[in-house]
Write a structure and sequence with these properties.
The complex is a heterodimer of chains A (about 100) and B (about 60).
Chain A lengths: L1 H8 L4 H25 L5 H27 L8 H18 L3
Chain B lengths: L5 H24 L6 H25 L1
Helix pairs in contact in B: 1-2
């Protein structure tokens, strides 16, 4: 963990983008998990809790997506440019790994 | 808590571990973030996540 933190602090302005992307991916994955869990629920008590938390997760996704869009981290309307950025980020991540 | 199906319990377990990891990660990330808006979103995620975990725990015990 220490070397990761050191790496990230050395990344300067990149850190926010990486953390935002991670939060977006987590929000997406959480929404899917809630939907799956909901279809396995057998009582209204469980269903209500999961529904409530699902709607909070959707709200978090909206906030983080808007944040990324407004900061130019996520170009949802120009896939070509987004893919170019993805590749740049991938190369940056690869250059930070020791292998 | 009333009885849960095994399939249901496993999904709740899955969600609880996921949310716990998210909460830990968000708390670790907050000091690394420089943008105020992003910090607010993360702080809000920490607050909401804490409540969610408590609710999921209550369903499981």
């Amino acid at each position: 963990m220490n070397s990761i933190v050191q790496n990230m602090t050395g990344m300067g302005g990149m850190t926010d983008q990486v953390i935002a992307s991670d939060l977006l991916i987590s929000a997406k994955s959480g929404i899917k998990s809630y939907a799956i869990a909901l279809t396995e629920s057998t009582s209204s008590e469980v269903r209500n809790v999961l529904c409530d938390q699902l709607s909070k997760a959707v709200n978090l996704h909206e906030q983080i997506f808007n944040y990324m869009k407004n900061n130019g981290y996520y170009n949802a309307y120009d896939p070509e440019q987004q893919i170019q950025m993805d590749i740049q980020n991938a190369d940056k991540a690869l250059s930070m790994s020791k292998f | 808590m009333q009885k849960l199906g095994v399939h249901e319990k496993l999904e709740l377990h899955e969600l609880l571990t996921f949310k716990t990891t998210c909460l830990t990660k968000a708390q670790t990330m907050i000091p690394l973030v420089s943008d105020t808006n992003l910090k607010n979103i993360l702080q809000q995620d920490v607050n909401g996540g804490t409540q969610d975990i408590q609710q999921l725990k209550n369903l499981l015990v």
